[in-house]
Amino acid sequence: MAGLPLTFAEPLLLLGLLSLPVLWWLLRVMPPRPRRVEFPPTRLLFDIAPKEETPSRTPWWLTALRLLAATLVILAAAGPIWNPQTGPAGSRAPLVILLDDGWSAAASWEVRIKAADELIANADNDRRGIALVPLSEPARDITIMPGGTARVALRQLAPKPYSIERVETLPAIERFLKSTGDCEIAWLSDGIDTGRGTDFLEGLGKTIGDRALTVFEGGIPSPLALVAAENAAAKMTVKVLRADGGIAAGVVRAIDPKGSPIGEARYTFAPQDRETEAAFDLPVELRNDIARLEIAGERSAGAVQLLDKRWRRRAIGIVSGSTNDTAQPLLASTFYLTRALAPFADVRLGDRGAPQQAITQFLDQKLPMMVLADVGTLSPEIRERISAWIEQGGVLVRFAGPRLAQADDDLVPVKLRRGGRSLGGSLTWEKPQHLASFAADGPFAALPVPKDITVNRQVLAEPDAVLATKSWASLEDGTPLVTGEHRGKGLVSLFHVSADMRWSDLPMSGTFVEMLRRIVDNSGYTSGPGAGAASEASVETVAPLRTLDGFGAFGPPPSSAKPLPADFRDRATSEHPPGFYGPADGPLAVNTLAAADRIALLDTSALRARRASYTNAEPRDLRGILLSSSLALFLIDAIIVALLGAGFAALLRRRAAPAALAFALLLSSMLSAPSPSRADNDDDFAIKAVTQTRLAYVVTGNADVDSIVKAGMAGLTLFLAQRTALEAGDPVGVDPARDELAFFPLIYWPVVPGAPKPPQDAINRIDAYMKQGGTVVFDTRDAIEAPPGEGGASQTPGMLALRNILSSLDVPELEPVPREHVLTKTFYLLRDFPGRFNTGQTWVETLPRDDDDEAASRPARGGDGVSPIIITSNDLAGAWAIRPDGQPMLPLSPGEPRQREFSFRAGVNIVMYTLTGNYKADLVHAPALIERLGQ
Predict the structure, then answer these.
(1) Separation CA 22–CA 931 (nearest Å)
(2) Which of 130, 284, 453, 874 is the most exposed place for a label (fewest CB within 10 A)?
(3) What is the mean pLDDT of the chain?
(4) DSSP string over 174-204
(5) 684 vs 574: CA distance, rounded Å
(6) With 0-12 CB in 10 A as exposed, 13-18 as middle and 19+ as buried, what is 326?
(7) End-to-end CA separation in angstroms for the chain
(8) How many other CB atoms sit within 10 Å of the CB of residue 147?
(9) Which pLDDT score, from 0 to 100, does residue 530 have?
């Protein structure tokens, strides 16, 4: 209704508003106010008016009040509903739900799941089948499911951490629609076009044909993303992307590899901006420690930018052996090297003292990379220090020159011939050479080969069997221009020309900058292409280390993740999800979006579809509010009329005592009238409890404990639906003093130390519940607090509080769960029952022995042999508790690999034990039965 979330169940009744003008005209007339006149006849004769009086008019504000009351009655009769449920129109055809589940849907995932759950609930009420189609899984088999199965499948879905290709699911949708025939389609769109959105809309329109389509979009904030992080000379910047407009602002956080915050940077969007920039003005040492950038408050993989060593701004020392650098600085090799390295590194010049002094200084400063331009002979001590520095991960880049051509050392990747090779001189037959190619397995692979670079002189390498594997760039005659090899964790590279313009014009080209950038980018890895003969022509790959989920949280790599090339620079895919790959000391970062990616709104106006929006509010019927308001207005109108007519004054004068008595009776009847809310609540509680099997938990009054327990019982219910045939309803919180407990097969009671003891009425209800076959799980949740030594577990605060509760209960004799107990075999084969902790003991009712004649008279023996009480201290609900995004809510102690899985299995065994009784007791005693049959 005019953009408002308001609809009317009977809109035709709004035509009654047309009668308001007539009602206005009728309400204008009001009889004149009566006046009290003394009876004496003469006085009466004097007051006789000589002319006829006209009736008085009703005040305009009183007429407006009456019209407002009438308007409210008409609106209430039309059945107004605020935030009505939106979705496909009702029919008997199956419902197909198309769900966008890429990274752009993660930020509002709960809203989308809620909308899908409402669609499934409505279809299930109409007994219609449901097909769930996540658009990230083109190979997924599309089948029609009942409502309960569809809910379970919906809860198992999670957003993907990469951009999805909706187009790839069209063939599967087309095959399904051809086989199904008539159906209704609801598309829960994220509203974002990350590429090929127009192709999908055209294909979807052709595929669905004349079938009904409802597109859900709008009503939720547009997602944000981070791309193109750059560690510049003065600051680190990152671009923040969005798809819609309007003024907005936020914060980007910088986090180090250990998860500690380093800094924050604000960003601001102008009304028409689709991208903006956040800048971190931090020292280079802190910027180099940043491993993750994330948008505060935005939970998606697209809002995370991972950084590896390629984003570190390395400090590079440059040492020149030439004496011309100070005489002609603009022609010196240091000038060209500084200009080439400055965009992506902090350059430090060793321009004072001898080259060996500058090298010693840089080694003491532990710089990660050094460039030696025409540095010849070095002392043995310096060579040893440089060799050790390279073995530990240092990168040494050398440039040729007259001094290096006459030197003889091993700090070059290949053995060199003494002297240089001149090309194009007056005394030579050879012409200047051009660059021919880059090695496919070297760091310069995929760089375009420039044709305008000319080499006039070079130092030659001695030919040998491994020269080709160490050549990263070659000239047209096959001689190497750049060679390199890995040594230990470091790298040695040699440019066979000088770093200035004397031997070639390479330093003047843009290719020179990119070549140096590639060398800097490849530094820091333990191995890489071009490392020598061992690498040959193979491409090195790195395995996934840890990856991001759709919400931007780290986790173990999925089974579908595959290794990728060590020089991978593209965006994440289903086979290569975003995260870190390779060794832990030098991982490779893969991000959801590439640096050049941008996002835009998806325009669905070309589709012939019904539009619906997401909403967080529940539908609300406004009829009660409107009718109550109109009744209040009519009451006010009656009071005003009585005041204007002096009715109250006459009533008080003539009937003061009866009026006071009537008012007192009316007030007392209103106060003493029984409220139907408690009875109605009891009926609703009973109907909710008996329509579906549900687990229950005791509400303690502690908000933190109750929220964790509620999430834990919900997590166990979901696990039961996934692993067993039980599809239980949502868990119910109960108050033993007020609620009926007989509806629930199992009640989980978290014991809170220091809480007051429950009233005796609640204790009596629990006692009756256990004697009638129910089972109560008491969890003190404090196994980790037990003092060491024998009997320490019984001295914890939670166990003391539990003893206080059990002191008024008729509790049977208890024992630790025996190895042969049915509880260890009802569904899974278990040895113990861990929760958040695994050191606590689990206690059940002592099993009767064959010679126990009083077994039948034991307290609380109802329930087909099921123990009416189970006591543990391992905090089962804490291990079961999961957040709405499916991630665990609390950590485990000691956190063994499968501890949470076994805690869920323990919960399944407990539930199956309480539901099925001792039906597996025969299996426990099977050996004895077989032995008796054999006899």
Answers:
(1) 96
(2) 284
(3) 82
(4) HHHHHHH-S-EEEEE---EESS-HHHHHHHH
(5) 46
(6) exposed
(7) 83
(8) 20
(9) 37
Residue 870, number of CB atoms within 10 A of its CB: 26
Cα dihedral across residues 850, 853, 854, 860: positive or negative: positive
Give the pair of three-digit tokens for residue 724.
Answer: 């067993």
Distance CA 446, CA 515 (A): 11
Tell whether the torsion through CA atoms of 117, 123, 128 and 133 is positive or negative. Answer: negative
The two structure tokens encoding residue 319: 């040492």
CA distance 61 to 70: 14
Task: Determine the Cα–Cα distance for residues 477 and 431; give it in Å rounded to an integer.
Answer: 11
Distance CA(590)–CA(548), nearest Å, equals: 10
Pairing of strands 454-455, 433-438: antiparallel
- Report the Cα 126 to chain-centroid distance in Å: 33
Token duo for residue 531? 């490392």
> 452 φ, ψ to 5°?
-105, 5
- Which residues, listed in sequence order, are joined to residue 213 by a DSSP beta bridge? 185
Question: CA 359, CA 398: separation in Å to the nearest integer?
Answer: 13
CA angle 348, 350, 356 (to 5 degrees): 135
* pLDDT at site 710: 94
> For residue 783, what are its two tokens?
């196994």
Cβ atoms of residues 744 and 696 within 8 Å: yes
- Cβ atoms of residues 452 and 459 within 8 Å: no
Of 352, 404, 351, 328, nearest to 373 by C-alpha is: 404
Contacts of 342 (CB under 8 A, 6+ apart): 233
Q: How far apart are CA 88 and CA 609, in angstroms?
A: 10
CA dist., res. 266 & res. 312, Å (int): 22
Here the tokens at position 243 are: 């798809």
Count Cβ neighbours within 10 Å for each residue of 383-398 and write b for 16 or more, e otherwise.
eebbbebbeebbbbbb
Q: Residues of the chain whose pLDDT is less than 70? A: 1-11, 13-14, 20, 22-58, 82-91, 323-328, 351-353, 419-430, 522-539, 615-620, 644-682, 848-864, 918-930, 932-935
Residue-level pLDDT at 678: 42
Category of 55 on φ-ψ map: left (φ > 0), alpha (ψ -120 to 50) or beta: beta
CA distances from residue 23 to 26, 58, 105, 538 in whole angstroms, order as listed: 5, 13, 53, 91
Question: Quick check: 150 and 118 in contact, CB under 8 A?
Answer: no
* Tens of pLDDT, residues 250-289: 999 999 998 899 999 999 999 999 999 999 999 888 898 9
Q: Which two tokens stand for residue 650?
A: 């006459």
Please state whether the predicted TM-score (pTM) of the whole model is above 0.70.
no
Token code pair at residue 216: 């859900």
Cα separation, 935 vs 925, whole angstroms: 16
Q: How open is the CA angle 176-180-181, to the nearest 5 degrees?
A: 115
Residues 131, 136, 139: CA angle, nearest 5 degrees: 70
What was the pLDDT predicted at 13?
67
Report d(CA 728, CA 716) in Å as an integer.
Answer: 10
Distance separating alpha carbons of residues 318 and 557, to the nearest angstrom: 41
404 contacts 375 by C-beta, under 8 angstroms: yes
Helix (H), strand (E) at residue 409: none
Beta bridge partners of 541: 565
Residue 883's alpha-carbon distances to 681, 715, 908, in angstroms, are 29, 9, 20
How many Å apart are CA 303 and CA 546, to the nearest integer?
17
Gyration radius of the chain's alpha carbons? 41
Rounded CA separation 701/410 (Å): 76
- To 10 degrees, the CA torsion angle through 584, 590, 591, 596? 140
Closest CA to 241 of 160, 300, 289, 161: 300
Residues contacting 38, CB < 8 A, separation 6+: none
- The one-letter code for the residue type at 790 is E
pLDDT given for residue 295 in this prediction: 95
User: Other CB atoms closer than 10 Å to residue 436's CB: what's the count?
Assistant: 15
Looking at residue 241, its pLDDT comes to 95
